[in-house]
Predict the 3D structure of the following.
Amino acid sequence: MDHLEFCERLSIVSSTLTIWIDRQWIIPEVTGPELTGQNEAFHDADLARGLLILDLSQSMGVNQDGIDVIMALVDQVHGLRSKLHALTDAVREQDGDVARSVVRKLEGMR
């Protein structure tokens, strides 16, 4: 979806989205030459982030600095989940003894 549709779906004005992009809370995909003005594409994950930002700012009263911290933590959690999935896949590819040894080690960390 483009800039206008994104704003319409979240019931926000364009300047609000510009602030979110400037603060890197939303990072649109660049799809074309920047000179055309039609170079931003937004996805469902961006909408979800937008809804979270609205909830934080409007419902919970979190200020912009607080949203900066929260969005950075959300991004860290997503990055860690991705790494954990990759680690899980790597363990599954090992022979049975190695995989069991890794699982025992991890269970001992609880």
